[in-house]
Design a protein that fits this description.
Length: about 120
């Protein structure tokens, strides 16, 4: 299990292969974004091969920087490869009704990757 509490500049993270949970919510523009997301990428790399459930990866990032976007793309690539190898991973991207930039980012991501992707307005 990977659980990281939110700060003023980094999101809340709750990921558990055993409990089929994957949630990243909040803001992400910390100076140490690389260090922060490396923990998530490492967790995916080491634990997701044991995934035995249908996993819905939930993202609700209200503000994020370009480094965060790079790591999101990295995660999507990993999810796509895991699905190709028989895992069942889907993404749900939550966005605020008036946040057109976030919606456009999510649409771009969904168009780049061959994984089940759902957009949900909050």
């Amino acid at each position: 299990m990977l659980n990281i509490e939110a700060t003023k500049t980094s999101p809340y993270v709750n990921i558990s292969v055993e409990d089929c949970i994957f949630k990243i919510t909040g803001v992400s523009f910390a100076n140490d974004t690389d260090v922060f997301f490396k923990r998530i990428i490492d967790f995916i790399d080491t634990k997701f091969s044991n995934l035995e459930c249908h996993l819905n990866c939930e993202f609700y990032l209200t503000v994020f920087n370009s480094v965060t976007y790079k790591y999101i793309l990295n995660m999507m690539t990993k999810f796509m490869m895991l699905n190709k190898n028989g895992k069942n991973i889907k993404v749900t991207w939550y966005y605020d009704k008036d946040d057109e930039d976030n919606l456009e980012n999510a649409e771009d991501i969904s168009n780049l990757f061959n994984i089940p992707f759902e957009l949900k307005e909050m």
